Amino acid sequence: MIVKRxxxxxxxxxxxxxxxxxxEKEHIHIETKKIAKTVVNKELKRFHKDVEYVINELNTFIQxxxxxxxxxxxxxxxxxxxxxxxxxxxxxxxxxxxxxxLEHAVSTYFTEVVNIFDAMENExxxxxxxDFEDVAYRLLSHSMNKSKDVLAKLDDKSILIxxxxxxxxxxxxxxxxxxxxxxxxxxxxxxxSIIARSMNLPMLVGISGLLENINEGEQxxxxxxxxEIIIFPSSNVLAEYKSIYLQxxxxxxxxxxxxxxxxxxLDNKEITLMSNIxxxxxxxxxxxxxxxxxGLFRTEFLFMDTEKLPTEEEQYKIYKKIAEKLAPEPVIxxxxxxxxxxxxxxxxxxxxxNPNLGFRGIRISLANIPIFRxxxxxxxxxxxxxxVKIMFxxxxxxxxxxxxxxxxxECKNELKKKKIALYKDIEIGAMIEVPSAVITSxxxxxxxxxxxxxxxxxxxxxxxxxxxxxxxxxxxKSCHPSVLKAIxxxxxxxxxxxxxxxxxxxxxxxxxxxKLLLGLGVEELSVSPGRxxxxxxxxxxxxxxxxxKLVEELMELKTSDEIYERLNDGKNYE
Length: 574
Prior knowledge:
By secondary structure, this protein is of the alpha/beta class. It has helices spanning 40-62, 69-83, 85-96, 102-119, 123-143, 167-175, 191-198, 210-213, 235-255, 283-288, 312-326, 344-347, 362-367, 369-382, 398-417, 435-439, 441-447, 455-463, 481-496, 514-519, 532-540, 544-554, 560-569; strands spanning 4-7, 9-12, 15-22, 158-162, 180-183, 203-205, 219-223, 228-231, 272-277, 294-298, 331-334, 388-392, 427-432, 450-453, 500-503, 524-527.
């Protein structure tokens, strides 16, 4: 057999070696016949019993410590869908008033929801469709007593091959200890991909013609590092990948030994290594990996997947609990940073053709002052230990910082009038994500206590490349000359004004860029909890002064390819 390779989009790193198991999700056929009035109560009882069963099943997954916090959060969203009063009310109406069977009523409700979301032509809602379809499938499978186990043939040597996969299906196959996942459809940022990534399952998506190229039982290799599937691997290729797999396993064990090691470089420069979190539940992992605090606490979860805005008290309790648990380490809370397209349901924002350049970040906050004040007051109140800082996203100039500083002072005065004790001061920072912020970083540094570079958006806006658009992904280059110069300019301006600058974007956790950032003068890095040890390993093996000299050479190069090539040469600088 000739070795065959097919490309896909890698959503989770790592190598998997195993046998292809093709699984097609069973289609559920719903009969539309009506029920007699005499069995309505029986049908309602069955409905409540089935919902309770599925919720308990979800609770089992949510309480499983082997699942990541991100994974459990997605499953919690599914649980909330089943607990939604609108769902309960509508299904009851269909059963009692229209005499629909339980299955017909449930199917009708979810079809109605899917049709509404589908008509919105909104990326956020289109992603939520998968969640509703997943919940419907899970509930109907149980209600119809589908005993056929489509996963029976899976074992710890299996690599799952499917057209597409839902989040709950990922959790089910994970229980089977499969080695990897491959799908024809899917995106890098779908809930299914997020779960697979959190479980460290090598996964490829968007593989055109996947089911036509692979047969049941064939030995295959999933290379999540390079985004390809290898079919009919030769003995030499197999031996090569077995060696890679062994090295990856040994590396993971070795990194665990760095938990209590300080992030100090070879030339004795201590780097502040912090964590980015999206949910309060991630705190345990932050503490477990001995992180130096939270460099970015995203607060969007409070405002999304909800029909009402969070109160000041609700926010205060969450922020305070996190701050107290991490004290004396810093907790940097970023005010809401999400596009208006994702908040349109609760803020009545009109549809935008280009939300990335529209109503998002600090712009939403300053256009909704009462909501913004509520969040600021909650953060100020939570700063009881003096370790809380506030960071503002999508800052384009000093005017916005001056405006938010005025609002902070007004909020302080409001709280003092209510006899609420506040810590004497709170540090504020601006996120450097757009070109105008880079160019005016000198002025911003004079008005802020710290700056933080969000490289994901900075690269996107500097190069005019939508980072979620796979068709132009080749243009998204983190080592583009303009990106390095933008980071260097920001760092130099911050230092000239006596403040520190951090990087909290993906570059901070990418092993090929960590030493580069330190050479550019960055003193603080903030990464996802799962990347802390990997990033620390790069730090303790870096000689900053030598990399600073390499940076001087890189600044003279004209293309990304030249920079990337020189970076690879510089890997052996130590």
